[in-house]
Amino acid sequence: MNEALRPNSIAKRDVAVHLHSQTNPKYLAEHGPLVVSEGSGVHITDSDGKAYLDAMAGLWCATLGFTNERLAAAASEQYSKLGFYHTFFNRTMDKATELAEKLVDLTGMAGGKAYFATSGSEANETMIKLAWVYHTVRGKPTKRKVIARERAFHGSTIVGASLCGLSFMHREFGLPLPGFLHTSAPFPYRGMREGEDEAAYVARLCADLERLIVSEGPDTIAAFIAEPIYAGGGIIVPPETYFAEIQKVLKKYDILALSDEIVCGFGRTGNWFGKDTVGYEPDMMALAKGLSSGHFPISAVVAKGEIYDAVYAFNEAGGNFGHGFTNSGHPVGLAVALEAIAIYEEMDVVDHVRRMGARLSGHFNELAKTSPIIGEVRGAGLMWGIELVEDKDTRAPFAPDLKVGLSFDHIAYENGLICRCMDDTLGYAPPLIVGEADVDEIAEKTEKSLRALEKQLGVR
Ligand SMILES: Cc1ncc(COP(=O)(O)O)c(C=O)c1O
After folding, report:
1. 113 burial via Cβ count (<10 Å: 0-12, 13-18, 19+)
2. Is 21 helix (H, G, I), strand (E, B) or coil?
3. Which of 75, 78, 191, 218 lies at a 20 to 30 A Cα distance from 152?
4. Residue 260's closest CA among 295, 233, 237, 228?
5. Distance from the alpha carbon of residue 124 to the mean position of ligand 1, in angstroms
6. Please, are residues 301 and 117 in contact by the beta-carbon 8 Å criterion?
7. DSSP characters for 144-210?
8. Residue 3: DSSP 8-state
9. Distance separating alpha carbons of residues 216 and 136, to the nearest angstrom
10. Is 116 left (phi over 0), alpha (psi -120 to 50) or beta?
C-alpha cells in the first residue's frame, strides 16, 4: 500500500501537522507527500523503497549529490572543533577568512568583500541594504527603488518576494512593497516580435527599462537585479548582447547592477558564475545553494570594493554596520562550503558541466525533432528547459487549464524521474556530478514520459 494511504504512516501524520512550502494544501491532503528517506549520488529513495533520479538536484542545490562523504566529514570535523560561533562584534574564524578569500578570488570582484548569511533571500536583501548605504554615503539618499524583471524569482521573504516578477508570489500577500518595480523579461521565444532581430529586440528591452527609470525618476532608483539565466522563471537565456546593453542604461543613471547567482553560481551554467556565461558585470553578487551543495544553509554576498568603502564611510562616526544574522558565518556552513569548492576545483566542474550539458541538450534536441509538442529546448551548462506547446509552428501554448506541464511531472514521477515544470516548461538542473549514464537515464525517462503525455493528449 502506498505510504500516503497507510494509517499512522509518516505521510498521514505529516498532512495533519506540517505546513509545506509552495504546496497546494488540498492536493497534499488528497495525495499525501512524497516521503524521502535516503539519497545517494543523483538518486533519492522514498519510504516505499522506490528510487527517483532527481533531475532538479532537489531545489537546484544538491550539486554534489544527495550524500557526500567529504562534505559529511568536513561538517563532522567542524562540529567536533567548534559547533557555533558568529561574526558579529569583531569576531571571525579561520574558515570565514578562507571562504571570503576564496569567493573574492573566484568571482573576480576586485578589492571585494564577502558577507555571509543563511539563505538566498537574505543574500538578496543584504545586497539591497548595501545599495542603500552606498547611495546614501554618496549624497544620494533618495535612490531607494529597485528594479527587478518580470518572471524573476528572488526569494520568499517580504523583500525577496517583492523582487519576484511572478504573480503567485504576490497575490496573497499584497506585494510587491512600494518601490519594487519590474521591467520586461528578455525572453526571445515569447517576447521577440515577428520581423524583429535580436539587436532590435534588445534595444526594445533597454528602451522599456529606460522609460521606467525616467518615469520613476532616476534619482529614486538604487539598483537593478537579475539572474544571469532565469531559473524558476522558466529557464530563460537572454540574447547575447542583453546584459552589455542593459548595463549601459544602468551606468547612465548611476544604478547598481546586482546578480542573483543563487542558482547560476558554482558551475551550473558552464562557467564558475552565470555572469561569465552571459557577459554581466555586476557590482554585487548573491550566492547560495551550490555554495554548500545545499548540504548546509549558507549564503553569501560578494561586493565590489566601492560598496565596502561606503559601509566604512557610513560607520566612520563610530556606529556599527547594523545588519547581521545569527548564523552569518556559521562555522559548519563555512567548512562545508570550503570543502564543496575544493571538490568543484578537483573535478574541474566547469569542464564536466560543459561536457554533460552538451550530452543532455543533445538528447533533448533529438527528442524535439520527433515530438509534436516540444516548442523550444533552451538553457546552458546543466540547466535546461523544454517548453511544450500546442502548435510548434505558431508557438501557441496549451490552454492553461490543461496543466500539461504538471501532467508531465506526474508521469515522470511515476517513471522515477523528478524534474520541475514551470507552467508548460519542463525544468532540468541535475546535480553537477551527473555522469554519462545518469544523463542518458534522464533522457530515456524524459522520452518515455513525453510519449505517454503525447498519447494522453491524443497527438501520437
Ligand atoms: C534565483 C533564486 N534567488 C533566490 C532564491 C531564494 O533562496 P532561499 O530560498 O534560500 O531564500 C532562490 C530559491 O530558489 C532562487 O532560485
Report:
1. buried
2. coil
3. 218
4. 228
5. 9
6. yes
7. -EEEEETT----SSHHHHHH---GGGTGGGTPSPTTEEEE----HHHHPPTT--HHHHHHHHHHHHH
8. G
9. 18
10. beta
Q: Is the CB of residue 231 below 6 angstroms from any atom belonging to ligand 1?
A: yes
Residue whose Cα lies nearest atom 5 of ligand 1: it is 155
Q: In this predicted structure, what is the pLDDT of residue 1?
A: 45
- Tell whether ligand 1 has an atom less than 6 A from the beta carbon of residue 154: yes
| Residue numbers of the chain with a pLDDT score lower than 50 | 1
Q: Which of 198, 194, 314, 184 is nearest to 249 (CA)?
A: 184
Using a 6 Å cutoff on CB, does residue 375 contact ligand 1?
no
Say how far apart CA 122 and CA 448 lie, in whole Å: 40
First to last CA, the chain: 33
* Alpha carbon of 91 to ligand 1 centroid (Å): 28
C-alpha cell at 191: 517576447
Q: Which residues contact 366 (CB under 8 A, 6 or more apart)?
A: none
State the Cα–Cα distance between residues 265 and 40, nearest whole angstrom.
23
**Element housing 221 (H / E):** strand 221-226
What pLDDT score does 5 carry? 66
Nearest residue (CA) to ligand 1, atom 6: 155
Mutate to test the pocket of ligand 1, among 56, 118, 289, 422 (most ligand atoms within 8 A of CB): 289
Q: What separation in Å is there between the alpha carbon of 379 and the centre of ligand 1?
A: 18
Domain spans of the chain, in order of start:
34-67+349-456, 70-347
DSSP 391: B
pLDDT at 271: 98
State the virtual CA torsion across 321, 326, 330, 333 in degrees, nearest 10. Answer: -110
Domain 34-67+349-456 has CATH 3.90.1150.10: yes
Q: Indicate the length of the chain as a whole number.
A: 460
Q: What is the pLDDT of residues 12-64, one digit of tens each?
A: 999 999 999 999 999 999 999 999 999 999 999 999 999 999 999 999 999 99
Ligand 1 binding pocket includes 262 (Cβ within 6 Å): yes
Indicate which atom in ligand 1 lies nearest the CA of residue 61. Answer: 14
Nearest residue (CA) to ligand 1, atom 16: 263
> For 70-347, CATH number?
3.40.640.10
